[in-house]
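Slide 14.
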Amino acid sequence: MDRQDVGEYVDRSQQLIEASPQMDEANTKAAVLRDFLDLLDWEIPINTQLEYSVKAFGQTYKVDYALILEGTPVAFLEAKGADTALTSDHEEQLSSYMMNKNVNYGILSNGKQYRFFQRHVDATNVNVQRVIDTHLEVLPEKVSVLKAYTRSAIESGESGKILGRINELREARRTLEAEKDDISEELATVLGGQVSDAIYSFAEAQSKELVDRLIEDIDSEIDAGGTKTTRTKTERPNPTGVKSAENKIAGVINRAEINGDDDAKVAVFPTKESGVPFLEENNAWGFVRVGSEFDYVAMYVTGDLRQVQYFAEVKDVVSPDEAELARPPEEYADGAKIAEDKVVIRFEPGKLYELADPVPFETKYPQGLRYTTLGALKLAETTDDML
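Slide 15: predicted structure.
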């Protein structure tokens, strides 16, 4: 299996789903997911059993596909219809099946969305963890993860190595996220001691930015399946598979051309480059907490860009369920990111712009929501002038 094989599967499946977007479970399995099993080199009935019986929640259930080696199930694939959004209840269902039968690998899919799981066992605990959550359009970017679920990889033990690397990266990310302030301060102290105390304030700000960039790079590698990925500064990751025709950015504008009261309030949000497709697809920014009212939104893009890159006029602030997003909210983020107190900020139609003269990072950048004024944004030479 290579990227071309996966691309051909994606093309066929997209055509089928676009022709019948409300396919139920039976038709999704027959039209889409059996081809997915073929892609992973699992064949019915040689090494794949349909409707495999397992006990969970005190009852007997049927797993849609049990992938079997030497008479023992080694992975489960639980299917839903293309007309059904995947939920945490579906994940709990599959996890129970895997725990009950000591199955180490699991896949949950509705043909459009694909969630991969691994069962972990240590001296005191057994649990099932999600490896990645991805979409049909971007499966060619996830070849490494797909290979971990092939017959040959599970049979040879290579699956454990591939997913082990992803788990190591995920643990490193947790540490960086939890200890970012301490790590940044220690880095700044070392630089100040080695060079000069005069640079400490600059080093502290840039050390925080360095940690954020490390986290973003780790996220990119996890998404790619634990294989090192590189991209140029002008490339943007597109995890939602947004097509260029759906780009709702109205165009490019110079800050001096923005009309409005200089005292108008601007909410400045940070985003990774991977968040840009959400802006493009929805003409909105989402799953955030806000306090006071504001008139405009400016987006600071972290990573290689490190600048205030986008600007929009606010239309309203609504709940995720009211936002009329291009995709269901759960397809954009996990439950923590769409908690009840988080909202979506919708922009006025045709009022989302990319800045022709973005505001570059100097020593200050928004680690969370920050406020400025339209006048400060228009005149800023660097982020220090507006934050």
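Speaker note: The first helix runs from residue 3 to 19.
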